[in-house]
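Progress narrative, work stream C.
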Amino acid sequence: MSYGHEPDLVFVSARLPTRLMSLAPFQDSITGTRPGRVDQNGEVLVDHFPLLGLRLTTPRLELRLPSPEELAALAESAAEGVHDPEVMPFLVPWTDRPPAEVARSVIQNHWLQLGAWEPEKWSLQLAVFHAGAAVGLQRISARDLRITREVNTGSWLGRRHQGQGIGTEMRAAVLHLAFAGLDAEEATSAALADNHASYAVSRKLGYRPDGFERRVVRGTMAVDARLRLSRADWDRHRTTPVTIEDLEPCLPMLGLPAS
C-alpha cells in the first residue's frame, strides 16, 4: 500500500506550459555540494536555485531533488505500481492510468511544482533513495510558513519497497526538516480510511486524529481522515537520526528569513 495521498497536488497529463517546462532541461545531475551547469560567470544552477543542494539523510535513506536520469527512474518506479489496484489511496486517482501515463505524470508534476514555486506557497517533492535507487517520493508543502508555522506531508513508495520501514523513515526525515530546520509548530497529513499503512506510519510518529471529511474517489464516497502532529508530540516520538545539508541558502525560498 502507498503511504499518503497528495491533497493539494494535481497530476497532469497535458503538455506543460513552456514557462514551467523551461526549468526541466537545465537540472543537471547532482554531485558534490554545487550541482548544475556552470554559466559564463562561473555560477552553477544551485546558486540560482539552492533547493538543488538540499539533502536529508537518515541511516538508510537520502532525500533530495532528483537529476533528470533519477527522475526517470522514479517515474518508472511509480509505473511499476505503488498500491493494490483494487484500492485507491489517493484523492486524485493518478495511478489508475496506464503505466506510461503514470510515469509521465510524475515527471510533469515534478516540473510543475518547481516552475510554480513561490516562497508563500510551495511544495517540495523529494526523491527518496535507498541503496542508491529511487524508491519513492516524499512531499512537504506549506503556505505562508513564516506566519502559520504549519507544514503538510504526503508520499508514495514503490510497492516492491514497502514493508521495510522505509515509509516511516522518509516521513521522519521531512518532519525533522520541518521542526528542527524550519521551526514549524505543527505538521498535518491525511489518509483515506482503508490506507492502513499510512495510518501505521502516522501513529508511530505521534500524530493525533484531527477530524474527517467526506470525499469522492472513483465515483464513490470515501472518508478522509485528517491527522495532526505537534512539535511536542514529534519530539516525544522521534527515534530516527536525520542530517540536513545546505538548508541555510534555501530559507528565503521557503518563505523564511536567513538566519
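Work stream C, second folded protein:
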Amino acid sequence: MLQPGREKCGRKNTGKGTEEMTKKGDRRYDVAVFDLDGTLLDTTEGVLSAVEYAIEKMGYHKLSRERLMEFLGPPIQDSFAAAYGISGPILQDIATIFRDRYKGEDLLKARPYEGIYELCGGLLARGIVPAVATYKREDYALTILEHFGFGQYMKSMHGSDHENRLKKQDIIRMCVAEAGVSDLSRAVMIGDTLHDAAGAEKLGVDFIAVTYGFGFHKPADLDGVPNVGIAEEPLDILKMV
C-alpha cells in the first residue's frame, strides 16, 4: 500500500490530472532513478558479512546486530567513522579490506524484493527510463545488477568511486543525463534512506521513499523529509509516477 508524502518536493501530489502531468501522456516522469541496497535488492547478508570481516581484521570490538544494520546504505567509510569515532586515511584502509572481502566472498549474497521486476517492466511500458544511482562502488554495483538481471531494464547504472568523492546528487545527475533528460522536474529518485532523500533534494528532483528497505520503516520516519510519496512495496511506485 502507498502513503501520501508528508512533505512535497516539486509538483504537489494531489492525485489530479494537471497539464504538467498529462502533457507527455499519463506519466509524471521520464526517468526513475533507483537506489540499489534496500530498494532493488535486500543485500543484508552479504554486506554485513563483509562488515564483520573488516571489524575482525581491524581488531575492533564487535557491534550489536542493530548497530550493524546502520552500515546498510551509507558509504562504508562514513559507517565506520560513526561506529568507532575514527577519521583520516585509516578509513580508506578499512574500505579496501571491506571491499576486497565483499567482492570475493559476499557480493552476490542478496535477493530481489518481491515485485521489483514487475515494477521495472511497468516503468518501461509507460515510457519511463529506469536507472540506478548507488553508493555501492560502481564495478561491484554493475556486477550484482547484471547478475540479478537488472541490466535488461536499466538505461543507466552508476555507483561510487573508491575514494568516496562522488556524492549522491552527483551519481543521480549522471543517471539523469545519460537518460537524455534535461528537465529535472521530469526525474524522480526512489530510495530507502536519508542519503537518497538528501541527494534528490540537493539536485532538485522529486523523491519517493520506500519503507520496505533498510532506512525508512514507517511514514513517521519521513516527517520533515521532502517527498512526493511513500511506497510500502515496490508496485506501489507505479501509482506515483
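Residues 9 and 35 are 18 Å apart (CA to CA). No further action is required on this item.
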